[in-house]
Amino acid sequence: NLHRTPHPQPPLLAPAMALYSRYLLDPQANGADLEEAVRQLRYAEAHLTPGHPDRPAALDDLGLVLIACYQRSGKPEELNEAVSAHRESVALTRPGHGSLGLRLLNLGAALSLRHLLTEDGDDLRESRECRRQALDLPGMGPAHRAALLSSTGLSLITGFERAPAPVDRLDEAVGLLRD
């Protein structure tokens, strides 16, 4: 459950995200749009210096598009690059920024996806932590909050039988899913 930031896109990013949106409408027919979106977002990443205010948005968008690439190709390196892009986006987003919650949610989703591939428990733990941090932030709209509660609850169910306190883990998951 990856989410685009609802704020207007910076001019350098808008064309790439328009291509990505068109790709999502018909992935079979619009594969070239996905490739071009990646190319444009990599260009943006290379030209937005670390202090540039649009860099976190560019990295978050790049992460979203790379996950779509991974889902299309199955290449783990695309998923790893997506996780790195989302991680840097979160790190560069200042506390209190309106997009921080969605960026944490996107990082958490990317880590969950990678956990499904690698079964790395650290990815699953970090994914849950991202979601918990996002839940504590003000400004999450009702739709995003519902998606966040649902994805956090479902992530708690994953691997609950190996948790030190499996019943507590399930109780927490049920509580989040009821909210």
The total beta strand count reads: 0
What is the N-to-C succession of helices and strands? HHHHHHHH
What is the count of DSSP helices, taking H or I runs of 4+ residues? Answer: 8
| Count of all domains | 1
Predict the CATH topology: Serine Threonine Protein Phosphatase 5, Tetratricopeptide repeat
Write the layout of secondary structure elements.
Blueprint: H1 14-25, H2 31-47, H3 55-73, H4 76-92, H5 100-118, H6 121-135, H7 142-157, H8 166-178
Helix pairs in contact: 1-2, 2-3, 3-4, 3-5, 4-5, 5-6, 5-7, 6-7, 7-8
Provide tags for this entry:
single chain; 179 residues; mainly alpha; Serine Threonine Protein Phosphatase 5, Tetratricopeptide repeat; 8 helices; globular
Structural account:
With 179 residues, this protein is mainly alpha-helical. The chain has helices at 14-25, 31-47, 55-73, 76-92, 100-118, 121-135, 142-157, 166-178. The chain has one domain (14-143): Tetratricopeptide repeat domain (Serine Threonine Protein Phosphatase 5, Tetratricopeptide repeat). Helix 2 packs antiparallel against helix 3 (55-73), helix 5 (100-118) runs antiparallel to helix 6 and helix 5 (100-118) runs parallel beside helix 7. The mean pLDDT is 85.
